[in-house]
Design brief:
Length: about 400
């Protein structure tokens, strides 16, 4: 006779008092470290020459989770203003994380500390378009967390930043899959802020794929429900969607709002990018003098930030406006400068060739605003497909 099977019922599980005390002690220690080391870290970065930052890893007082938390904030602050500085701060944090004694915290906390250092390093690498190195850094972060079974939230953060990097190398299907997984985990953990970041990242993915209507439908509901940075990001993306969907007046208003928000957040590069977008919107409204003034300002500032490609794209919009005012000689000089800038910055040779072609035909009857737009679309497309062949047909 077969024994009757009955469901296994687990009774109420009582927490282990010893483990609870250890957990509470660790939490207090981490909180104390954050409070006591934040100013120390900031002061050391201010007072130490940048060329000597990595030497700070030898200082005992920085070998703590609290110091690494502050370094992560410092790296994030610099990420949009000086990606190279952000990378150096992230490298310092990585060096320190490797020097933290394994018995300083419970093994899980040590693993999380080191994984987050690798994650921040990967984010800084992405800002510099060093994507292969960023993927390797995220692999290292994954390996730090592998031995532990209760780190789903940490792993979801790695999925999010890996998905963002994948977008830049045109691996959209993989990025979409990872964003979906990460969003589900953040929702299950009740983390609305990071769930919203996943939605924003997916909206940007749709923009990159040219699905501007889908991006708009996804991003509009986020307005008023995300943090200030997320709000500014969504408004900026929506403004570019408006341009693509032939709503330049709406785009102009959104760019103005986005500029105000980025300025309040202390993000000058992002604020200047909205000036480039506003110039593009003014061009589509045939407000040529205003467009030329705005695009000239944006181009000058973007070059000052060494953002040569974006400055070149602003310059192409400016060339189009100049041609519409029959100022072909000025347009030709500008096209020649952009070619020189792209060559000096060692940018994609196909982009240089397309710009050189544009430079050659400006001044002839063949040069039209439509050809300029074709070249602009091609240079933008090269970001996702570096081997794409140039064609005047969009």
């Amino acid at each position: 006779m077969t024994e009757k099977l009955v469901p296994f019922v687990r009774g109420p599980r009582r927490p282990d008092p010893t483990r609870m005390r250890e957990f509470a002690a660790t939490a207090r220690k981490l909180l104390d470290e954050r409070e006591t080391t934040a100013e120390t870290v900031s002061a050391l970065l201010r007072e130490t020459p940048r060329s000597q930052w990595r030497e700070l890893a030898e200082r005992e007082e920085l070998r703590s989770s609290g110091a690494l938390d502050q370094l992560a904030r410092e790296a994030a602050t610099r990420m949009k203003e000086s990606p190279a500085e952000s990378l150096e701060v992230a490298q310092l944090a990585l060096d320190i994380s490797a020097r933290i004694p394994s018995d300083s915290y419970p093994p899980l906390v040590v693993a999380q500390t080191r994984a987050h250092a690798w994650k921040d390093y990967a984010r800084a690498l992405c800002c510099l378009a060093r994507y292969d190195e960023a993927f390797s850094a995220l692999d290292r972060a994954d390996r730090e967390l592998e031995p532990f079974g209760s780190v789903a939230h940490d792993q979801a953060m790695l999925l999010l930043y890996r998905a963002i990097a994948l977008q830049h190398v045109r691996r959209f299907e993989e990025a979409e899959s990872l964003l979906t997984r990460a969003a589900d985990i953040f929702r299950d953990h009740g983390d609305d802020a990071l769930h919203a970041k996943c939605v924003l990242a997916y909206g940007n993915l749709l923009v990159r794929r040219g699905n501007h209507r889908g991006a708009r439908e996804l991003l509009l509901p986020l307005l008023g429900s995300v943090d200030p940075e997320g709000e500014a990001t969504a408004i900026t993306a929506l403004a570019w969607c408006d341009i693509a969907l032939d709503n330049p007046t709406t785009a102009l208003n959104r760019f103005a709002e986005a500029k105000q928000r980025w300025t309040m957040l202390g993000r000058p590069i992002d604020a200047m990018r909205t000036q480039y977008g506003a110039g593009a919107a003014l061009l589509r409204l045939a407000r040529l003098d205003d467009a030329i003034a705005r695009l000239t300002e944006a181009r000058r500032a973007l070059l000052g930030f060494t953002l040569v490609e974006e400055a070149g794209l602003a310059g192409l919009e400016l060339i189009e406006a100049l041609l519409m005012q029959d100022r072909a000689s000025e347009a030709k000089r500008l096209a020649s400068r952009i070619v020189q800038e792209f060559v000096a910055a060692n940018l994609n040779r196909r982009a240089v060739a397309a710009l050189a072609y544009l430079n050659e035909i400006i001044g002839s009857t063949e040069a039209t605003p439509e050809i300029v737009r074709s070249v602009t679309s091609y240079v933008v497309a090269l970001r996702d497909d570096p081997t794409r062949e140039f064609s005047l047909i969009n």
